[in-house]
Amino acid sequence: MSYELTPKEVRRAARAAISIFKENRYDCCLFGSLACHIFGMRNRDPEDVDLIVLNSGKLNAEGLKKLLVDNCSWRFHLEDPPNPNAPYKILYYRVPTYRPRAPPKFCKIDILVTGKDRTKLQIPRVPNSSIAYEEPFKDIPVMPLLALLGLKLQGWYDNSNSPWKNKRRKAVQDAEDVNQLLEIAVDQECHLENWSEKWIPGWFREKVEMMLEEYKEEFPDSEENWSELGFD
After folding, report:
1. Which residues 6+ apart lie within 8 Å of 29 measured at CB?
2. A Pfam family for this UniProt protein (predicted)?
3. For residues 192, 138, 128 and 15, what is the CA-based torsion angle, rounded to 10 degrees?
């Protein structure tokens, strides 16, 4: 599905999912383009929602998607992916429309879980006390900025090294996202040694450092900004 969504509509989709997870005692936070937008990144508007469930327990991402549909089937639904052999469904949120005969609009929502070995993306588990709430969207939980930057860097690294051309093309946009988010982190005086960043696990820091070697080689002008954040 392809629809022109406004940032407000994407935030509405995120709030709907977050509310249901909260009612079912699941903690979560945003990452991806919507989280970057909330932190102030303006090189592009968010088109979908990337939501991390922090205490999923035995439920995997597919079980969590089903939970949303079971709790609000008039707003959430699942569709088969283009690849019939893919082991997942695609989750959509139907955005409320208020104009008569307005065409329906849907927002895709990706659900992920944390853990070094549970997903390919290897998302660190954010303590509830470290989740970010940014003005003017204080009701929306967001991945802390340095960790979000690390995940954005991982997206660039994975796409840059992909054997698929369409993935490698995405790396250009990923690099723009990383550079803008990097500047925001420097402006906010983030640093690895700040007390607020002590929760970041060692394995995630090591992975970021490894990916940074390749990133700084391709974008040497970014090296000073990375150093200001505590990355050598």
Report:
1. 35, 51, 52, 54, 126, 131, 132, 141, 142, 143
2. AbiEii
3. -120
Which amino acid appears at position 133 of this protein? Answer: Y
The secondary structure of residue 80, as a DSSP letter, is: -
Put the strands of the sheet holding 90-95 in their side by side order: 28-31, 49-53, 105-113, 90-95, 76-79
Residue spans per domain, the chain: 7-130, 145-228
Residue 2: its pLDDT value, please? 47
Please count the other Cβ atoms lying within 10 Å of the Cβ belonging to residue 119. Answer: 14
The total of other beta-carbon atoms located within 10 Å of residue 111's CB is 25
Residue pLDDT, tens place only, 46-79: 999 999 999 988 899 999 999 999 999 999 999 9
pTM for the whole thing?
A: 0.91
Q: Which residue has the tokens 């803008």?
A: 180
Report pLDDT digits (tens) over 83-128: 888 899 999 999 988 777 778 899 999 999 998 666 677 899 999 9
Fold adopted by 7-130: Beta Polymerase; domain 2 (3.30.460)
